[in-house]
């Protein structure tokens, strides 16, 4: 060991416990926003809107919300309203804070115990607190228990008490916030970006009405898709004349024991290379994962089994390749499960093995049944795939 210089020894001795900074609560969010919303650019700016909307969608999945209204306000802020139960306002021991304030200021790292959600999207217990922390101001208005309630915050800190107002027969929650220009690189919301995601949520949650209004100038849109994923696939396949079959194939199945719901819609066309979109708890899984892997595997097996039984195969006798089977296929796979496991902070790949297993079960059962019950459409699909196989030099 070499002898340290006096100066170096002094520097070492100055490094003690007082130099270790532990960030807690909302201060941690404001200091490291990228850890919670991915970025402080446009993507993160829009993500905070989706977090508030995710709370309302969770209420819908629990059976309490029929409509969600999102507004880009004239001053550049956001207001999200729903017709659900309303955030709870009762005081909670031992802190004595209202449940509403706890939800808006504390990080719980899990679904809120009062909500009773089996399925939850967003940051799963963090979302509203993150939005509050990253806003210069946030106001919440709740219609619940026969009264209207309000509270205001600045940078995540309450500046008014939770206040009870007049009686009302309405129910629901309205949250309005202004993103903090000191944190975000831009605070200009894109109508097109929000519109695309909100319509996506309407597709993924059939029967849910979602509206978006821009007061900067005013231009309202409203999305309400009773056909759900079938309507989503129709949007993807925008050239009816090129469809291999119609209508789209759509089905859903639920395993209550494993607490997983699978919804699938799919349709082949002759004009595109195909596109498969997958979602878990309404979150787009851009890198796929277990549910998408199960879909692709079972799809290839089912189509090959049907083709063999009807002697429609590629010339080499090796069966229809996965690439040929998916040529021109537009499909949407959505799973909703109690405990999703995502790889990476950006939540782009689902890891749950039960999603792979159950999606395969659902595809093998329901797609096989559909092909057998629709022989004309099934024959057209297999002919299309065989032609794609020929294009790969296998015919």
List the helices and strands and how they pair.
Layout: H1 6-14, H2 25-31, H3 34-37, H4 42-61, E1 67-72, E2 78-82, H5 99-105, H6 127-133, E3 135-144, E4 147-154, E5 157-158, E6 163-167, E7 172-179, H7 191-204, E8 209-214, E9 221-224, H8 229-236, E10 249-255, E11 260-268, E12 275-280, E13 283-284, H9 290-309, H10 322-325, E14 329-337, E15 342-343, E16 349-350, H11 353-373, H12 375-391
Parallel strand pairs: 1-8, 12-14
Antiparallel strand pairs: 1-2, 2-7, 3-4, 3-7, 4-5, 4-6, 8-9, 10-11, 11-14, 12-13, 15-16
Description:
- The longest helix is centred in the C-terminal third of the chain and has 21 residues, at 353-373.
- The termini are far apart.
- The protein has helices at residues 6-14, 25-31, 34-37, 42-61, 99-105, 127-133, 191-204, 229-236, 290-309, 322-325, 353-373, 375-391, and strands at 67-72, 78-82, 135-144, 147-154, 157-158, 163-167, 172-179, 209-214, 221-224, 249-255, 260-268, 275-280, 283-284, 329-337, 342-343, 349-350.
- A hairpin with a 2-residue loop joins strand 12 (275-280) and strand 13.
- The protein contains twelve helices and 16 strands.
- It is α+β, with helices and mostly antiparallel strands.
- The strands form three sheets. Strands 1, 2, 3, 4, 5, 6, 7, 8 and 9 form a nine-stranded mixed beta sheet that branches. A five-stranded mixed beta sheet has the order 10-11-14-12-13, with helices on both faces. A two-stranded antiparallel sheet has the order 15-16.
- The chain is elongated, with a radius of gyration of 25 Å.
- It folds into two domains: 25-224, Heat Shock Protein 90 (2-Layer Sandwich); 229-391, Ribosomal Protein S5, domain 2, CATH 3.30.230.
